[in-house]
């Protein structure tokens, strides 16, 4: 007996990373961490016996190694013994103050009434045919148990008593998943934190796998079996794609309303709701301050690329056509872009307090605010949600409050990339201003005004504010250039 205990103590040096904690009742000391790699089963039993302080006896049938390699943490001595014996096809029984280890087929005589089940395990990484040939696997079965291979599914069908089938599944699952490894997967376009918080990748992990993020490098840090990590990497490639962008080009101009009638624009929506091209919804409303000169309703039309250039050239030949702005702005798919063209108009505000009048200057923002939200379709068409707001100052009303004339609308239209949407119908009545000048001299900087004269007419002229919007889908490389 002295020789056996001495041998058990020496064997402690054969196991890596083993530490012990407090003693739990009847189950022996708690083992915080222990690994069995290429360890003889007898040596493992002797180590547990020495640590526990319980005699464990076995016969010559006990042979072979602990298979597969296993690492245990925070388990009692009895739990550790049960696990390594289960995996190796053995069981144990208490005999007063000692434990006897024997072949599982002998120990299961009391389990005659346990039901027989069949379970199919489909492999992710290992080949079912190769696993089925393992001698360690066959030792886990009872005499009547059997394992068959399904090559089409790459699966094993296990038939045995239920407790035995569960042990076999644990064994082959370890072989299939292999040892856990950690891999860093950098992302090019998606945000690592967003991908993890979505919960999609967690469904691909094993029970003990985990995913963390590294914000500094925008990477996923995955710990799991090699097969699971490969599956996650393939999935990440499908979702880590650049977000499509749209370049929005706009032209905002003001011209004589008489010119717009002869431009040949296909006004597809004018006065009656429910009509127009397929894919357009329309919801326009106008909020006009007292004395507003703006009138009419919004008109919506579309132009091909060549038509747009022709119409702009035609309007520019008219001396009273005024291009207010030619902005270009890029935005990503489903994100709104805002274009503002206008001015801050100072308005003198008079207020009274305790019989004393005070005057202050208030600046009012007027002009055009254009909000565009593009959504790219799979065939590279673009659905545009357009919200134009046009405002103009009409001066001061009773009580010193500024009067604003405001027109706004919301519309959604489907166009091809490069096709132009036209918004018109924003009419305003103004007195025409005519400029007469001496040729050449009237165009000289600084002093040219001496040779020019502006005359304001007595009649009213209708002016039309027109907005041209052209979306273009921006093609991008799937992988950004490397430094």
What can you see in these coordinates?
A hairpin with a 4-residue loop joins strand 8 (146-150) and strand 9. The relative contact order is 0.09. The chain has eleven helices and 27 strands. The two termini are 69 Å apart. Helix 1 (2-11) packs across helix 2 (41-52) and helix 2 (41-52) runs antiparallel to helix 3. The longest helix is centred in the middle third of the chain and has 16 residues, at 162-177. The strands form seven sheets. Strands 13, 14, 16, 17, 18, 19, 24 and 27 form an eight-stranded antiparallel β-sheet that branches. Strands 15-23-22-21-20 form a five-stranded antiparallel β-sheet, with no helix packed on it. Strands 1-2-4 form a three-stranded antiparallel β-sheet. The chain has four domains: 2-108, Phage tail protein beta-alpha-beta fold (3-Layer(bab) Sandwich); 113-177, 2-Layer Sandwich (Ribosomal Protein S8, Chain: A, domain 1); 181-239, Ribosomal Protein S8, Chain: A, domain 1 (2-Layer Sandwich), CATH 3.30.1370.120; 245-474, no CATH class. The chain has 483 residues and is α+β, with helices and mostly antiparallel strands. The chain has helices spanning 2-11, 41-52, 77-88, 104-107, 128-132, 135-138, 162-177, 192-197, 226-239, 257-260, 305-316, and strands at 19-24, 28-36, 55-58, 70-76, 90-95, 98-103, 116-122, 146-150, 155-161, 181-186, 210-214, 219-224, 245-256, 266-269, 281-288, 294-295, 299-303, 322-325, 328-332, 337-353, 356-376, 381-396, 402-416, 420-430, 433-437, 452-456, 461-474.
């Amino acid at each position: 007996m002295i020789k056996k205990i001495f041998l058990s103590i020496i064997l402690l040096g054969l196991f890596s990373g083993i530490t012990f904690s407090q003693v739990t009742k009847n189950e022996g000391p708690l083992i915080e961490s222990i690994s069995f790699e290429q360890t003889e089963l007898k040596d493992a039993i002797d180590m547990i016996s020495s640590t526990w302080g319980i005699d464990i006896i076995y016969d010559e049938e006990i042979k072979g190694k602990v298979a597969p390699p296993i690492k245990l943490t925070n388990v009692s001595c009895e739990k550790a013994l049960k696990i390594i014996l289960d995996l190796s096809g053995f069981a144990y029984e208490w005999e007063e103050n000692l434990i006897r280890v024997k072949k599982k087929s002998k120990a299961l005589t009391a389990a005659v009434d346990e039901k027989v089940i069949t379970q199919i395990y489909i492999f992710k990484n290992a080949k079912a045919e190769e696993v089925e040939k393992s001698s360690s696997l066959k030792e886990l079965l009872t005499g009547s148990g059997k394992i068959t291979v399904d090559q089409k599914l790459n699966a094993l069908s296990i038939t045995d008593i239920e407790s035995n089938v569960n042990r076999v599944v644990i064994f082959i699952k370890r072989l299939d998943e292999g040892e856990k490894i950690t891999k860093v997967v950098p992302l090019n376009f998606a945000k690592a934190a967003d991908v993890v918080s979505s919960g999609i990748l967690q469904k691909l992990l094993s029970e003990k796998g985990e995913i963390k993020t590294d914000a500094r490098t925008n990477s996923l840090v995955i710990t799991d079996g090699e097969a699971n990590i490969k599956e996650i990497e393939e999935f990440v490639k499908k979702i880590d794609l650049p977000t499509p962008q749209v370049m929005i080009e706009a032209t905002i101009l003001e011209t004589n309303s008489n010119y717009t009638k002869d431009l040949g624009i296909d006004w597809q929506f004018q006065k009656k709701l429910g009509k127009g091209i397929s894919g357009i919804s329309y919801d326009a409303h106008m909020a006009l301050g007292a004395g507003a000169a703006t009138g009419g309703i919004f008109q919506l039309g579309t132009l091909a690329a060549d038509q747009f250039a022709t119409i702009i050239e035609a309007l520019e030949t008219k001396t009273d056509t005024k291009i207010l702005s030619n902005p270009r702005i890029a935005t990503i798919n489903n994100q709104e872009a805002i274009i503002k063209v206008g001015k801050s108009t100072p308005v003198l505000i008079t207020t009274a307090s305790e019989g004393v009048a005070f005057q202050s200057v208030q600046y009012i923002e007027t002009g055009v605010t254009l909000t565009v939200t593009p959504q790219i379709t799979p065939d590279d068409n673009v659905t545009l949600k357009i919200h134009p707001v046009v405002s103009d100052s009409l001066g001061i009303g009773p009580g010193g409050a500024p009067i604003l004339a405001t027109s706004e609308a919301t519309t959604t239209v489907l166009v091809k990339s490069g096709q132009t949407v036209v918004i018109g119908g924003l009419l305003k009545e103004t007195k025409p201003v005519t400029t007469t000048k001496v040729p050449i001299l009237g165009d000289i900087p600084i002093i040219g005004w001496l040779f020019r004269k502006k005359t304001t007419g007595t009649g009213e002229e209708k002016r039309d504010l027109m907005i041209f919007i052209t979306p273009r889908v921006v093609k991008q490389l799937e992988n950004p250039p490397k430094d």
